[in-house]
Amino acid sequence: MKYVKAILASARGGEQKIIKETLSSSLTYIPASILSSNVKEECRQPAEPNAKCIMHIEELVNKNRSDAVLLGIESLLLLTDQERSHVSLSVAEAVLNGTGHSVIKDFVHKCIRCPRSTLSQEDNEFEYASWQCAIMHNIALAVLGNSLQTAYGAECPVLSSVLQSEEWLGQSGIVDVLLSELSNADPHDAYHAARCLNTLLDSAMPELKTELIERGLPRAMRVSQKVGNRRHSLLAQ
């Protein structure tokens, strides 16, 4: 609101200084430099507030209301961002392997595979349903990318166990879904799919890299890079 007032005041010809303040929030933000030094400790000793954050998201995504469901996936996006959240690793583990919180993992997978299944029958009848499903699908891919990067940066074993599971590597598994997103090259969705695949390549054993190549990763990369060069610089990179 402070920024809005300043912009409106300028539009009217007036002047208003924006005073930078530390915003109070229900989330405790800490610098990435501090987080990187403490993230391994979080892996060993998950704090009680971590479970409370995850339980709150579970309550949101289980509600029979589209606004609550959307708020739930947006909260996951924030909480899995290791530069903005001090509970990123715990939430990332819940997203990747459902450690004690299978609701979170199942919800993210539904948003990636079939976002309409997360909305109630009544909400699916409204015109905004398609728009909301597209938004939730994109955010879910971003959440997955955040979670993979956080787990990889923390060197936690959860990532290696995920990469050996049928759910990820099996037929029509998450890896195939990511490759499909990259091939379809919707620039915003493909960008987050590329983030996920980059982390998998960085953290993977040689046999997984070979598997990705056999499943058509080079071709998908060429398609998405062409789209990125025209429409999305981050995807092109």
Tell me what you see in this structure.
The chain starts with a helix and ends with a helix. The protein is globular and about 60 Å long. The protein has 15 helices and no strands. The chain has two domains: 130 residues, no CATH class; 74 residues. The relative contact order is 0.09. It has 237 residues and is mainly alpha-helical.
SS class? mainly alpha
Instruction: Summarize the helix and strand pattern as letters.
Output: HHHHHHHHHHHHHHH
Number of domains: 2
Radius of gyration: 19 Å
Element layout with pairings:
Layout: H1 2-11, H2 32-44, H3 48-61, H4 66-79, H5 88-97, H6 102-113, H7 121-124, H8 128-154, H9 158-163, H10 166-169, H11 174-184, H12 187-203, H13 206-214, H14 217-231, H15 233-236
Helix pairs in contact: 3-4, 4-8, 5-6, 5-8, 6-8, 8-12, 11-12, 11-14, 12-14
Brief sketch in words of this structure:
The chain is mainly α and 237 residues long.
List keywords for this structure.
15 helices; single chain; 237 residues; mainly alpha; globular
